[in-house]
Structure prediction request, 133 residues.
Amino acid sequence: MPATALAPELPPTLVLDPDDQAPCLARAFLADLFAAWGIKDDYVGRLVVCELVTNSFRHGKGQIVVRIFRDERDGLPVVEVWDAGEGRPEIQPENYAATSGRGLMLMAELVRDWGVRPLNEGGKAVWAKLSHS
Prediction:
């Protein structure tokens, strides 16, 4: 699994307060960027950014930073979500009785690749590379 994607110098960035409005704002941010890039099918992208921002809101710490860019090597969209929390997201084993906890597993099935990298200033960036552009 690659540790990073090649981003342009200043990728589009959105800074969000960690509240229940963050996922909606992140979906709109992605939809606007995809429309500007001529990407008509933004469904998976909206699902991915919503899942990552929701996890950051629920389990992370501090403000949430969303960056969306196209990998310079292949043009595929990459979604990154940063927060100051130290915990790392992990796909949980299936639990048919659980009422939550399936989003990361679903997201992992829909993207080309995903991962987590530590930030120098503390916290983490969770990223997902989408399968189409």
In short: The radius of gyration is 14 Å.
